Structures are given as C-alpha cells and as structure tokens.
C-alpha cells in the first residue's frame, strides 16, 4: 500500500492534469462542431487526429489514477475515487476539482453527441445528393449521341435465348 499522503498528492495532481486535458478536449470538440457546421472537411480530418491524441492522453491519465487508487488500497472499482474523496476533509479542493471534472465530462459527452448528430445529418444529405446525381446521370444516359431520346432498358431481359 502506498503512503496515504503521497497517494493524496498524486491523485490531486492527476485530477488537475485530467481537468486541464479535458478542457483542451472540450475546445477540440467545439472546434469540430464549428467545422461540421461550416462543412470544412479538411479541417475535420486534422481535428479527428487531434481528438484521438487527446482522448489517448485522457485515457492514460485515467489509468494512472486507477493504478494510484489501487496502490492506496481503494481497489479498482468505479466508485474508488468517490471512496478516496469521502475520506478527505469537507473543504478539500479535490472535491471541487472532481465535480468540475464530472461536469466537464458531461459537457464533452453532450457536445460529442451533438457532433455525431451533425455528422449523421451531413451523411444523410450527402447520400441524398449522391442518389439524385446518380438518378440524373442515369436519365442522361437515355439520350443518344444525336441528342434524341432512346428507349430505356428495363434492367430485366425476359426472352434471352
């Protein structure tokens, strides 16, 4: 088991690091939302790479937090951090930092959900536009080189020998 004061200091530092990283992640999500609204596909590619890297950093901090909690004797269960907080004094700054982290995570979840909805809407729009273009291209094929309408094959050939 790790020295309690060392674990407390380590967990508080990880909480600060996680809050800082999550703030950056939120800014990325907001930039992604702006790029989605503006249809800036090239910018979305860059943001997706940045988002993946930021998520990876957040996951690494979460793993270090879990390892520190286990080392401090709180186990690996999801409520371990709450158990650690419960033994701190009522006015401990870590409590406010944890609530800030939870609020920011909920905000990130909401923005990410809305961004996903924007992506779905764009995909639907693109599919509809593609279907229309394919339909128009198919209709254009009904005219011969002389510009005269040609009979359209039905796609079914009934009397092939």
Relevant terms:
single chain; 161 residues; mainly alpha; Methane Monooxygenase Hydroxylase, Chain G, domain 1; 4 helices; 0% strand; rod-shaped
Kindly report the CATH topology: Methane Monooxygenase Hydroxylase, Chain G, domain 1
Structural class: mainly alpha
Element order: H for helix, E for strand:
HHHH
**Low-confidence blocks of residues:** none
Percent in strands = under 5%
Kindly report the oligomeric state of this protein: single chain
Count the DSSP helices: 4
Based on the structure given, which CATH architecture is correct? Up-down Bundle
Mean pLDDT: 87
- The counted number of beta strands is 0
Short description:
This protein has helices spanning 4-38, 41-71, 80-86, 93-140. The chain is mainly α and 161 residues long. Helix 1 runs antiparallel to helix 2 (41-71) and helix 1 runs parallel beside helix 4 (93-140).
Describe the structure.
The structure is a single chain. This protein has 161 residues and is mainly α. It has one domain: FlgN-like (Methane Monooxygenase Hydroxylase, Chain G, domain 1, Up-down Bundle), CATH 1.20.58. The chain contains four helices and no strands. The chain has helices at residues 4-38, 41-71, 80-86, 93-140. Helix 1 packs antiparallel against helix 2.
